[in-house]
Structures are given as structure tokens and as C-alpha cells.
Specification:
mainly alpha; two-stranded antiparallel ribbon
Length: about 325
């Protein structure tokens, strides 16, 4: 094996230079020999999956880097890269956090069990940081409804903690049927996580994120066990942020906007609850109405008709999107 060829392969992999990698492999470089990153051995497969998008790929879109990354992975496999379950899994874990859809799909096609728990009971879906990674994983059979980590978090709540695009990630989960108000073992929801993130810095973009989550149906009044509601959490953390932030005016403006939006949505949620309670109290009960209709002796079915109408009205209220 040529040491120069191996070095060239390692450097080309970091740049996603497919032709440079091909040249090095033809000269005898070993695709299974680990490269070195800051004194830590790392497989070439991970080097490719973690490689940053080179400057020559911009202004062209990230799609170019995505296709180049897949081509680099295919080349390594073609020249004998040994892909066992461990390699396939670590590649998948890398790409769902930062890579494009082509790379994510290719990594999963290597034979990864998308529901295999690891670490603290998390699955790959708990670490998905892009909307396309969420959609591809769910399409591959990833469990978004019942797979909880050791803290009781479902994938939606965990994924938005790591993602730079939490609203888009949450939208992808909800398109598949995930419930945005599910709670973890501490009684916190996805909106609690967003509040924790937003109240750590003074960025104005956080207001848009909170607004998006409220529009998706997140309930700012929901509290369970020892966890305060997202609105209460916001009020608690607001004072600390406005006192400690170096950009106090920006922080105050952000806090004011978030609290205003949450209070507005909280009022809507409370009105909805009161309407539901009124419907349940006033509308005929289906079973009792059915009994009265059957035993009334007039055969008109008035009771069952009222119950049906009541059920339709109650269903309509429950489906109101806030």
C-alpha cells in the first residue's frame, strides 16, 4: 500500500473530491484504513458523512454536495469498504444530522434498523435534525408515536432540541400524525423545549419559532405533574433573560412579543375548553338519548337524532385548530 495514496485518499474524502478519491484508490489506498482527526482514528465512511460542504460547492446549491457525498460513499463501497451494522449505523447517525436527502436515503439503504435503540434509549429519529431526514426515516418505518428515550421523550420533542430548524422538523412529524402536545416523563411538551431554547439568548428569530409552534397547535397552558405550563415557564425565564442579556432591549422586545402571542393563544385554548365543557353538559348523551328514543314508544327516533346532532357538534368543536 502506498502511504502517499492513503494520504491523498484521506484528504480527498475531507473535500468530497470523488475523482481524487478514485485516483488514490486505484493507486492502492485502503478504504478500510482509518484516517486521523486530531489524533483520533475515524473511518473514511464517517469522514465522508461528516465532511463539510466545500467552498467550491457554493454558490451552487447544497444538492451538489449531497450528490457528491453519495458518489463518494458508493466509491468506497465499490473498492471494498466493509460495511457492517456498526459502520452503517454510525453513518446513518451522522447523515441524519447534517446531510441532504440523497445521502440520508443511501445510508439507510445500507441496511440500518431505524428503530434500534442506542445510548439512552434513543432511536435515529430522536436525532433527526432536518425535515427531510424525519420524512425519510418515518417512510422507512421509524416509530414516532411510541419510541421514548430514557427521559420519556418521543422523537418529536427530542429532535427539536438539536435542530436548527425546529419548526420545519415539527411540521414533518405532524404531517405523519405525531401529536405536538404529547408529554415526557417530566410533563413537558415540545413547546416547553422551544421556550427553554428561546430564553437562553436574545435572538429575534425565536419569536417566529414560537409563533410557528403555536400555529401548529401547541398548547401554552398545558401543565402536568411538576412541570409548569409553557406560558408560566416563559414568564419565569423572562426576568432572568432581560437582566442577564447583553442586548437588553432586544431581549425585552422578544420576551414581550412571545408573552403576547402565548397569552393570546392561551385565551383561545381556554375558550375552547369551556366550549367543549358546555357541549358535554348541554348536548344529549348518545347512550341515554338512544335509550329514550327506543323506549319512548312513539317510534320517531327523536332522542337518537338529537344525540347524533350533539355528537356532530362536539366533534366539530374538538377539531377546531387554534
Amino acid at each position: 500500500m502506498s502511504w502517499q495514496a492513503q494520504r491523498d485518499l484521506n484528504e480527498a474524502a475531507k473535500r468530497l473530491d470523488v475523482e481524487g478519491m478514485r485516483s488514490a484508490l486505484k493507486r492502492g489506498a485502503d478504504p478500510n484504513r482509518p484516517t486521523d482527526r486530531y489524533g483520533i482514528p475515524i473511518s473514511l465512511a464517517r469522514e465522508v458523512s461528516q465532511a463539510e460542504r466545500p467552498k467550491e460547492f457554493s454558490p451552487p446549491t447544497p444538492d451538489v454536495a449531497d450528490a457528491r457525498r453519495v458518489a463518494a460513499m458508493r466509491l468506497l463501497v465499490e473498492y471494498g469498504l466493509h460495511v457492517d451494522e456498526g459502520v452503517a449505523f454510525t453513518m446513518a447517525l451522522d447523515v441524519i444530522q447534517q446531510c441532504g436527502p440523497l445521502t440520508v436515503q443511501y445510508a439507510l439503504d445500507l441496511g440500518v434498523d431505524v428503530n434500534e435503540p442506542f445510548g439512552a434509549g434513543s432511536t435515529l429519529l430522536h436525532f433527526a435534525q432536518t425535515a427531510h431526514a424525519v420524512r425519510i426515516l418515518i417512510a422507512a418505518g421509524a416509530d414516532f408515536a411510541t419510541a421514548r428515550d430514557s427521559d420519556g421523550r418521543l422523537p418529536l420533542e427530542a429532535a427539536i432540541c438539536f435542530s436548527n430548524q425546529p419548526a420545519a422538523v415539527a411540521q414533518a412529524f405532524m404531517e405523519a400524525g405525531a401529536a405536538i402536545n404529547d408529554t415526557d416523563d417530566a410533563g413537558e411538551t415540545a413547546l416547553h423545549r422551544i421556550v427553554h431554547r428561546c430564553m437562553q439568548r436574545a435572538g429575534s428569530g425565536d419569536v417566529e419559532t414560537v409563533t410557528h409552534f403555536l400555529a401548529l397547535g401547541a398548547d401554552p397552558t398545558l401543565s402536568a405533574r411538576t412541570a409548569p405550563s409553557p406560558l408560566e415557564l416563559t414568564l419565569t425565564k423572562a426576568a432572568a433573560l432581560t437582566q442577564t442579556s447583553t442586548e437588553k432591549e432586544v431581549a425585552r422586545l422578544k420576551v414581550r412579543c412571545i408573552i403576547t402571542k402565548m397569552v393570546t393563544r392561551a385565551v383561545a385554548w381556554q375558550r375552547r375548553r369551556h366550549l367543549l365543557a358546555a357541549c358535554r353538559d348541554k348536548l344529549p348523551d348518545a347512550s341515554s338519548a338512544s335509550d329514550s328514543g327506543a323506549g319512548g314508544g312513539d317510534g320517531t327516533g327523536t332522542g337518537s337524532g338529537a344525540a347524533a346532532a350533539g355528537a356532530v357538534a362536539l366533534s366539530a368543536v374538538e377539531k377546531i385548530r387554534l
